[in-house]
Amino acid sequence: MTQPGTTPSPRPFAERPLRVALLSYRSKQHVGGQGVYVRHLSRELAALGHDVTVLSGQPYPVLDEGVTLEKLPSLDLYNDVSPFVTPPLREWRDWIDVLEVLTMWTAGFPEPLTFSLRANRELRRRLSDFDVVHDNQTLGWGLLGVRAAGIPLVTTIHHPISVDRRIELAEARGLQKLSKRRWYGFVGMQARVARRLDPILVPSRSSADDIAREFGVDPATMEVTPLGVDTRYFRPRPELERVPGRIVCTASADSPLKGVAVLLRAAAKLATERDITLTIVSKPKPGGPTDRLVDELSLRDRVEFVSGIDDTALAELIASAEVAVVPSFYEGFSLPAVEAMACATPLVASHAGALPEVVGTDSDAGRLVPPGDPEALSEAIAALLDDASERERMGAAAWRRVQERFTWRAVAELTAQRYASTIDSVRGTRPADGEPRPAPARARANGA
């Protein structure tokens, strides 16, 4: 009971429903992890009682009931139907649109910058509408304006895009190198912005180490907050029969970072020895490097590409395979790995980036092979295809690991705690007499 003449302290933010603005500059659901992250995190935050508004540019995310989508449209210069086409002048709305077009004309990628500028403009108009802003790896200059306006700001960095840039430059030849350097020009901005943000949520310790090294971010500002999997869909399905010889991979097919070319070469070797089929959840560019390699390796009758399927179909596909593969050269976390583990599908993954953390180097949840080695990859897949009891044992261990570590509800609860501590450090809750205010993340990490 409050004593007469005293004022009760307000409840800390951790105990209150929060009004969250979740930013995502592009949120395509099944290409890359951004759309997956936004959808599932927003749903589970809403289920915890928070009021979540997603502000997104094109492609817009698919969201669940209870989450509000507010569109911050770009000129959509990179849409699937007619990419790199300049819209008519009458469709240009303001100076940000002009900047977007000029950057495209000079072979750059403007969306992280231009979305951040639009988000800054929108949020500054609505300073009282949100308790916290959570940016999903936009890392554009506009975020510094959001922070300067006094809005508590949390950001997620899944992994430093400088790693993608380095791998793609190594693969590029001739003038391609020049165009790749220009395309990835936004990475320097992301590094400089990231160094001025606190806190930064990262999905793994490996990713934190890479962000510190690549972007020069102070490790004290980073807090590991893993990603999750939607176990309503991605779960063991004993009612489904595994298709003999089926191998499945979810990856962006034309990105060298994802190692699909390595998997195709491993599949070509396996196809000389046994009856296998490879299903890749992606849409390669017709006539592009992946499409050409399928023909060069004479795999057209063994490889199928599928895209645009919903979570139910994707989960059933993964659960129908005898082996799932994540052949990436780098992952900041890897949702495809966790989705396979949740379906109890035996997993072969590269020993690269955060994959050893996800799979567990001392667990039975998957097998790790050197990245970029098709021989080692084919041998690991073959060993599992030949051993039904090992597949069953591995799948069961993987499902246990997912239940212990990687559910979206646990991710949302931890993220909400990050929100609350950030709000307290920026705005503060009125402390009781003699009670210190919470310290910022940097000070907490340094022992303050």
> Count of helical segments?
17
Main beta sheet strand tally, sense and closure:
7 strands, parallel
Give the helix proportion (percent range).
40-55%
Quaternary organisation: single chain
CATH class of the largest domain: Alpha Beta
Number of DSSP-assigned strands = 13
CATH superfamily of the largest domain: Glycogen Phosphorylase B
Structural domain count: 2
Radius of gyration: 23 Å
In percent, how much strand structure appears in the residues? Answer: 5-15%
At CATH level 2, the architecture of the largest domain is: 3-Layer(aba) Sandwich
> Strand pairing plus helix content: what structural class?
alpha/beta
In the CATH hierarchy, the third-tier topology of the largest domain is known as: Rossmann fold
What spatial form do the alpha-carbon principal axes imply?
globular
Distance between the termini: 32 Å
Describe the protein in words.
The two termini are 32 Å apart. The protein folds into two domains: 252 residues, Rossmann fold; 160 residues, Glycogen Phosphorylase B (Rossmann fold), CATH 3.40.50.2000. The chain has 448 residues and is of the alpha/beta class. The N terminus and C terminus are likely disordered. The protein is built from 17 helices and 13 strands. The strands form two sheets. A seven-stranded parallel β-sheet has the order 3-2-1-4-5-6-7, sandwiched between helices. Strands 10-9-8-11-12-13 form a six-stranded parallel β-sheet, with helices on both faces.
Descriptors:
disordered N terminus, Rossmann fold, alpha/beta, 448 residues, six-stranded parallel sheet
